[in-house]
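Submission sheet (multi-component)
Chains listed below:
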Amino acid sequence: MTVLFIVSLVVALAAVHRPLGDYLYRVVCAERHSRVERGIYRLIGVNPAAEQSWGVYARAVLAFSAVSVLFLYAFLRLQNHLWLSLGFDPVVAHGAWNTAVSFVTNTNWQWYSGESTLGHLVQMAGLAVQNFVSAAVGIAVAVALVRGFARSRAGAVGNFWVDLTRITVRVLLPLSVLAALVLMIGGVVQNLSAGTEITTLTGGDQSITGGPVASQEAIKNLGTNGGGFYNVNSAHPFENPTAWTNWWEIFLLLVIPFSLPRVFGRMVGQVRQGHAIVAVMATLALASVALTTAFEVSGHGTVPQAVGAALEGKEVRFDVSNSATFAAATTLTSTGSVNSFHDSYTALGGGVLLVNMMLGEVAPGGVGAGLYGLLILAVITVFVAGLMVGRTPEYVGKKIGSREIKLASLYFLIPPALVLIGTAAAFATGNHRTALNAGPHGLSEVLYAFTSASNNNGSAFAGLTVNTPWWNTALGLCMLVGRFAPIILVLALAGALARQQPTPASPGTLPTHRPLFVGMVVGVTVVLVALTFLPALALGPLAEGL
Amino acid sequence: MREKDMTVATPHARTPGSPATHGNRGGGLLDPRQLLRSLPDALGKLDPRSLWRNPVMLIVEIGAAFTTVLAVAQPSVFAWAITAWLWLTVVFANLAEAVAEGRGRAQAAALRTARADTVATRLLDWTAGAAPGSYRTESVLAPHLRQGDIVVVEAGETIPGDGDVVDGIASVDESAITGESAPVIRESGGDRSAVTGGTKVLSDRIIVRITQKPGESFIDRMIALVEGANRQKTPNEIALNIMLAALTIIFLLAVVTLQPLAIFSNDFQAAAADSAAITDDGVTGIVLVALLVCLIPTTIGALLSAIGIAGMDRLVQRNVLAMSGRAVEAAGDVNTLLLDKTGTITLGNRQAAEFLAVEGVTAGQVADAAQLSSLADETPEGRSVVVLAKNEFGLREREPGLMPHATFVPFTAQTRMSGVDLTSGDGAPARRIRKGAAAAVMQWVRQHGGHPTEQVGQVVDEISGVGGTPLVVAEHVDGQPARALGVIHLKDVVKAGMRERFDEMRRMGIRTVMITGDNPRTAQAIADEAGVDDFLAEATPEDKLALIRTEQAGGRLVAMTGDGTNDAPALAQADVGVAMNTGTSAAKEAGNMIDLDSDPTKLIEIVEIGKQLLITRGALTTFSIANDIAKYFAIIPAMFAGLYPSLDVLNIMRLSGPESAILSAVIFNAIVIVALIPLALRGVRYRPAAASRLLRRNLLIYGLGGIIVPFLGIKLIDLLIQFVPGIS
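Outcome: structure written.
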């Protein structure tokens, strides 16, 4: 069953990544604007023909995101004055800050439980909108970086407003409608109900909140956002009723990240370069899925051994392997939606989920963010390996000189710095005490929170109370810096690369499409990124699980 | 014959111990005495002000200072052992740099002797063609000479500064800079006019216009270069340094932020006994520093500057002066090599390859006539005709002076032929022989009543068609009509081994373009024979420049050699421009490298040295990073197995104890630097091959090796030091 489940996912992704990648390529490279898009450009006062330098592009990203954060913050603070608030109070200041940042940074870390904190209007017009545009921002930045590789002696890296609009209008909206329809067929609810009062089997009263779940669910996974309508996220039967909706949700969260390398290959004019990137992503992802599943199935401990696997925290309608695959997929894609509770995973299984995020969300990573993260790793690999063939390192024809490596190194420095400093600060200030567990598992809970926030994943290990001013503020900062500092660096790199004239390939050029190179990128990712965290992991999952 | 190997003792005075006297061009052997001699320099480099350029080693030094304080406060064998080895790590790194610099210093000392101040005779009011006496002379010390001064240098005197000969011709001993004892000719005008300060005029008298500014002579620059003074970091070196700094920061963060986590874990396992690694206050400072030093890329950080200095040094050993490290690196990146045909691809001159007779004449007769007509011809072409006739037909060389009846007719540009007139002294009828360009000789035949057959024309065309030069041989015996005897086939002789060289270049992804003044047909034939990828025929300096610009516009880096003043623009435009030392000062100024041997083939070696330099850096970086895996497995269980005994599973090397494990990792980290100094100085072995093959090979050696070697090394050190009291 496990094998069939994973193989069918691989086959489906392999079949879809090509047409979807080609479609995405046509969208971002198209010359013409649709009527809807022209209307939007007129509305926001943008000349769609004007291209932007990397600096202008970056300012546009930042301005757009800053406005989004402020808008969302106000929305959350004022929700009691708006329609469909379901009578909920305004969100507390630190919580509103955290949630505003969380949804704008495509993290979707949720300190609150959705069904008992937020009204339908905030969910739809606030959070769901960000689910679309934050995903579109990620793809736009990735496309700008790819333009840097593809262009020669160019000053511009594209037009942010055009990229944002097109990706939202032509890609995310139609795909989510399709995805939502499929989910509704699968039994996911879609209404504006304020809740249904029912009497349960045991005779108690229960209020079951309905809402626009299917539409949220679709973009939640498709845009690798992860913020669930319900607190228990995709473990909730209204969000994820059956094994096959589970399969569909995993497919949705993987499909765009795995299609984007095709866009890269098409844009640089060498499809095989895209294949190499997909191969790196797939190698890491499959290894991770296999490890998580293996640890969950063969968990230590009395109970897991009695029932044959570690079942605590997992929904019985999805078996262990479907839960493990979802968990691996959601942590590998910076989605952060969950269908089981990562805190209840075996120590080593949970450790793998932690490492998935520590890799920097590149296998395949969030929409857009995964591609640019992996391209940065490829640049670093090329730099180390390229010297070994006796030339100034080049990647798809662009030389990796001191400016390029400076930007790539800084990128590569930021997420680990945030995770490590944040975790150490939690322990140094005593804020780790809100963790449910003591000892290594408690350490994992704290480490997981900062890893998830800094890498914009958003999944929670659970077992940690984060609804305090310190936690909401600190994690909000990690999400903000962890998202936008890398984006600025990526765009600066795009600018530096676009200015360069490509060097034609020759037998003296390092081939970056062969299995050897794929293996090297995997090696660099594991050795340089994961090993940085080994001391911390030793005191958490390793101490607990070995 | 050029003394390429420089084995002849020369006034260059290679000091004993310098690599050249051992004939060891790779310079790989590391003399232990050299390490010892460099030790004072290495200790001097402990000064943080000189270490700040190397952030990785600066961190190690700060760490060593920190552990010293801790060891003084709480002395133990373990603390002092770690402290000592941390200091040694820094010293070893400095030693690598000091050894590399020491090699250059020996060469600089030899050069300084040539710079000894000389007294120059300056001419005032001298103008070209002025008669002696029409100008005044004065004596002035060489360092006081300014640009534009005119000096006269007599036989036996030392030339006081760099300049161009403006009058006269002289033989000059340039061994002070080239190490080559054979004198060279320097004359006014043309491409042989540049002279270098510190070289000696052997015969005759020349008037020189000084072109250098005071203190910026060629020898001054050479000294600065080989000493590595004001050495600028090269672009790749800067980039690599940035990445190493970033890695250092990450590991610094990983180690510093570990402390609160360790304190938390220690509180949780309050029952665990204190150890050398971890107490109630968390991980001890000494162990944290040890972990940090083991994780940051010290190996490459320690050897990086030595690799750069040694790369320049390897060029100097091949008698090439690179004016910047940037040029050496660019040499590794070169995509297109422009090679002059003459001297690089072919031997300097055309040579007779074959005698082709017309009907009714034997090849032997042609050879005999050709030889007779060439006896007085001292040009290389003429000599080759005589030699070929002797080799192929056993015709003895006849001394022109022993032939009283012969009158030799020299070649002139007007007649375009040369020959011999044999008078009828011994009864035979007078006979005249001519050889030369086909058109000229045919006309001569017609003028003397002959009718050259069509066959001659066919042979001439055939030879031209294969890129050769036909010389028609004709004779006119008194009383008979003149007749063409046959044709000498002169051809360019491609140097041995060039085709293989160019095949190698192609495998390395380098395109070779032959530059020649020949017509396209001839050029094509030679290009085919030599195996170059392309050629530029009937090349003018403008064509050359245009070709370089086209290549560069396509994103390719171009390397070329040149010596004439008209090469200067192209040399300046090329990414790697190697000027011949025999060339003009304009050419030498324009290029970014100077080949003291004036050997155009050197360009190929320069490219290889550039590549080797980059490969060495990449290989040691990979090695350094790969080393971390084993160090984690040594240190992490040593630190935390006391708290969580299950972590001892990670101690896969089964090291004897926590102190011993940590100390072994630190010792390995230090020793590996010394062990790799020879490799850093010699450079990684380089064989021309495609990038994919190079990568596979180097990844196997330095990547996989970098993973495995430290496991073995740390285990071995642990086996030894576990017996030290106080360690285990």
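Remark: The first strand of chain B starts at residue 119 and ends at 124.
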